[in-house]
Structure formats: C-alpha cells, structure tokens
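Recap from last week: sequence in, structure out.
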Amino acid sequence: MAEMSRLGEGVRAYWLIAGMWVRSSMTYRTSFVVTMFGNLLMTGLDFVGILLMFSQVDSLGGWGLPEIAFLYGLSVTAFGIADLVLGSMDVLGARIRDGSFDILLVRPAPVLAQIGADRFAVRRLGRITQGTVVLVWALASVDVDWSAAKVLLVPVMVVSGAAIFCAVFVAGAAFQIFAQDASEVQNAFTYGGTTLLQYPPTVFGKDFVRGVTFMLPLAFVNWVPASYVLDRPYPLDLPQWAAFVSPLVAVACAAPAGLAWRAGLGSYRSTGS
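Predicted structure tokens:
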C-alpha cells in the first residue's frame, strides 16, 4: 500500500513538473514550432541515410527497404516515447557536479520523478512523429500475411520497447550517481541502442547479437517480435514464443533498474559544490 502511495506521489509530481515546462515552452509558440520542426528534420536524416543506402543496393543483410523501415519505425517510435518521458535523465551528471542534485533530495517529491520531468521538452514529439510516419509507411509496404496476433503485436512492441528504453535510462542515471557523471556511457546504450536496432540482426556478428539479446535485451524491442511479424528467421534460432515475451522482458528490465536507482541514491555523497 505504501509503495502504491509513493508511486501515486511520483506520478503527480512528474505531471506537475512536466506541465510547468510545457506551459513555459508554449509561451513562445513560434520558437516552439520551429524547434519541433527542426527536431523532426534532424531525426529524419537517419532514415534519409537508409534511403540513400538503398539507392545503391536492393537489400541489407537479406532484408528489403520496407522491412528495415519497419525495424526503424518501431525503434525510433519506442525510443521517442522513452526519450520524451525520461530523456532528461542524462543531465543528472551535470546536476551532481554543480551541486543542484542535492536540492532535489530535500524536496517533498520522489527524486526520480523530478529528474525525469526536468526540462520536459515537447519538441521531442518530433522524433515520435517521424518514427510513426515511417512505421505507418512500412506497415503499408511490407509483404505480410496479417493475422490478429501480428496486428496486436505491433502496438505491444512499441509500448514494451518504450518501457525497455525507460529502464535503460533509469539504470544509466543510477550509474551516473556511482560514477559522478558518465552521461556519455548512458547515451551509448540509449541513443546508440536505437540506432543499432534500425538495422537487421543479420548484419551483426552472432556474439554481438547474443549480448544484445541476453545481456542487455534490446533485441526484444523489435528484432525478435518483428521477425515473427515479417516471417523471418529468429535471431539465434530462438523459439517462436519468444516473439511475445517483450512485455515480460520490459518488466524484467524495470525491476533491476529500479533497484539500481535505489542503490545509487543510497550511496550518494554530495560533492560539496
């Protein structure tokens, strides 16, 4: 009961802080629109690079353009949601260095909610919009014998993938507390992870795919469930039911990420700045 009450406090605090930043950003609406359009344009350059690649080749690792667009749309949309919700976690190291993290510790609100909602940026909707547009195009273009299970699996992939990326953000923030910074290490697994998942597993070595499947299970964001949807061989010859375990993987990632965050807070010692 106490945990549920604490969760409710966190959600309420997050909502209030995020709302404050949204109202602030909407004060200058022209600037907001220009910034959001710029964000949409910059994130779209990744897919432009894929299009240029396919102007020279017919397939990549045996996957055609619509199939890779499907991977891309799933990865970018899921990551975009996580980035919108918890993308500010990478500033934690800077807060620790300048001493402002100590202020969050004495406020009557969960620290994770405060950090996650800090400088909440609606402009990040540009990434979600761009990823969704590519995903919709991919769904209309891929040659798939659609079934009810495959149709339902698409939104499940997006939601579960966002949850997995959120867990990585939280775990990365916990690592920043221990390391007193290391935001670039976190970015390597978050921003680097979404870039990795935009390409099929067949272009990577088996040892690398094994690590991304069993050690840091980003493969369950799109590689594994997308293989079921596209009737492709599963990475590492996983069983067919593995395509449906992304929600369980998300929960399995969230639990240790939460424990790591608590351990990080428990071990924190002010820098004295």
